[in-house]
Specification:
It contains one helix and eleven strands. It is mostly beta strands and 137 residues long.
C-alpha cells in the first residue's frame, strides 16, 4: 500500500486504520443511534471505499438495525472501547470512519449533516453544511 492519505485509530493504539484514497464524503450524523453510541449530540464521520482502507488490530463489533432497516455494524477497540469505524470488514464496499479517530483531525471537512430532523435543540449544526432530514437520496 502506498503512503496513506489519512490514518487513525483508537485511544490506546491497538486498533488502527489507514486509507490510500480520499474520503467519499464527510459529515455529521445526528441520528439517535449515533448520539447514543458517541455519548454526544452527533458523530462526525467520513466514508471511504473499502478497497482504499486497511485495518489492523482487534475489533469488538456491535450490531443494531440501521435507519434503512439493515444491520448497522459499529467497530470498537476491545481494549479501550473507542468507537473507530462502521461496517463489517470484507463484506461491504465502503466503511464509515469516525472522525474522532483521525491522527490529524484538521483533515476533517464536513459538507453535510444528516438526520437533522430529530436532533436535540442543544446540538448545534455548523453553518454551511447541506442539511438532510434523514438519509440523503
Amino acid at each position: 500500500m502506498d503512503a496513506p492519505l489519512h490514518a487513525g485509530g483508537c485511544l490506546c493504539g491497538a486498533l488502527r486504520w489507514a486509507s490510500r484514497g480520499a474520503p467519499l464524503y464527510m459529515g455529521h450524523c445526528y441520528c439517535g443511534d449515533c448520539r447514543k453510541a458517541s455519548g454526544s449530540g452527533f458523530i462526525p464521520f467520513m466514508a471511504f471505499a473499502a478497497d482504499d482502507l486497511t485495518f489492523s488490530g482487534p475489533t469488538r463489533t456491535f450490531e443494531c438495525v440501521s435507519a434503512r432497516g439493515t444491520p448497522a455494524i459499529r467497530n470498537t477497540c476491545p481494549v479501550c472501547a473507542s468507537l473507530v469505524f462502521g461496517g463489517p470488514v470484507g463484506e461491504t464496499d465502503s466503511h464509515t470512519i469516525y472522525a474522532g479517530s483521525l491522527d490529524d483531525p484538521s483533515v476533517f471537512r464536513p459538507t453535510m449533516a444528516i438526520f437533522v430532523k430529530g436532533k436535540p435543540d442543544w446540538a448545534v449544526v455548523p453553518e454551511g453544511l447541506e442539511l438532510f432530514e434523514g438519509l440523503p437520496g
